[in-house]
UniProtKB/TrEMBL annotation:
<keyword id="KW-0472">Membrane</keyword>
<protein>
    <recommendedName>
        <fullName>DUF1616 domain-containing protein</fullName>
    </recommendedName>
</protein>
<feature type="transmembrane region" description="Helical">
    <location>
        <begin position="32"/>
        <end position="50"/>
    </location>
</feature>
<feature type="region of interest" description="Disordered">
    <location>
        <begin position="113"/>
        <end position="138"/>
    </location>
</feature>
<keyword id="KW-1133">Transmembrane helix</keyword>
<feature type="transmembrane region" description="Helical">
    <location>
        <begin position="148"/>
        <end position="167"/>
    </location>
</feature>
<feature type="transmembrane region" description="Helical">
    <location>
        <begin position="62"/>
        <end position="82"/>
    </location>
</feature>
<feature type="transmembrane region" description="Helical">
    <location>
        <begin position="7"/>
        <end position="26"/>
    </location>
</feature>
<feature type="transmembrane region" description="Helical">
    <location>
        <begin position="88"/>
        <end position="108"/>
    </location>
</feature>
<keyword id="KW-0812">Transmembrane</keyword>
């Protein structure tokens, strides 16, 4: 294994230091540490066992692509599991994956050393010791091109999937559920009473039961109960005292706290 165990140990140590820096309230440390956790460290840990077989260009291409795949796939998984994506969650996700890959690198160390007897750029042999067929100078072989292009395609697909999930979440989160309550006078005061119109409009996500309690001067009190489906409303016309303030309070279920409250000033 090229570099011995120092490579995975160094990457693991850098991941722990970066994780601690991201959690500190110091922007000058958080920004570069966060960029390292997202764009570099997971990919460096992932290519560890393959380093002897990869060219410099392949390493440069694979490191950021594999690194970005970690928060993309992990973010989709956390979203599906209902986990809130906060800074500590992102830090834990990228750090744990990096440490796990470093541990895998250490575990595969002896095997990787035995299988890495031939450098990736050896122009004389192929797998199995057969003479390599040389292509035009400066051109990549189909195998090398595939090793670079395939991770890029997979990363783009993952980013597209994450975008679809984000759009669906934003679309779902933009739907606001609420209930409207209103009280309006009807005509003008006549003799010792007046009429008001109380309306409840349901825009909740499911059928909801309501209780409306109307109070006024001289101990006036009235209540109405109804169950409404989303998109439906109910209106009552009530005779209330001609003077004094009239208050309508809306309750849902068995709640003792008003969900909505409106009032109409007295005449």
């Amino acid at each position: 294994m090229a570099g011995g165990p120092r490579w995975p140990i160094g990457i693991a140590g850098a991941a722990l230091v970066a994780a601690g820096a991201v959690l500190l309230p110091v922007p000058v440390l958080r920004v570069p540490a966060g960029l390292a956790l997202v764009f570099a460290l997971p990919g460096l840990a992932a290519i560890g066992p393959l380093r002897p077989r990869l060219s410099t260009m392949e390493r440069i291409a694979l490191v950021p692509l594999l690194s970005i795949a970690v928060p993309v796939v992990g973010g989709i998984g956390c979203y599906a599991a209902g986990v809130r994506l906060t800074t500590p969650v992102w830090v834990a996700l990228t750090t744990i994956v990096t440490l796990a890959l470093c541990g895998l690198h250490v575990g595969l160390g002896p095997r990787a050393t035995r299988s890495a007897g031939r450098p990736a750029d050896d122009p004389t042999t192929e797998d199995g010791g057969r003479p390599a067929r040389r292509g035009p100078a400066g051109r990549w072989t189909a195998r090398r091109a595939l090793r670079v292009v395939l991770p890029a395609v997979l990363t783009i697909a993952l980013l597209g999937g994450a975008g679809v999930v984000a759009l669906r979440a934003a679309r779902t989160g933009s739907v606001q559920h609420y209930t409207a309550l209103s009280i309006t006078p009807v005509g003008s005061a006549v003799a010792l009473d007046r009429s008001v119109r109380v309306t409840v409009s349901c825009n909740e996500s499911a059928p909801t039961g309501y209780t409306v309690r109307v109070t006024g001067a001289d101990g006036y009190a009235a209540h109405r109960s109804v169950r409404l489906a989303p998109g439906h409303s109910r209106t009552w016309q009530l005779s209330v005292p001609a003077v004094g303030r009239v208050t309508a309070r809306l309750y849902t279920g068995d709640g003792g706290t008003p969900y909505r409250s409106v009032f109409l000033a007295g005449g």
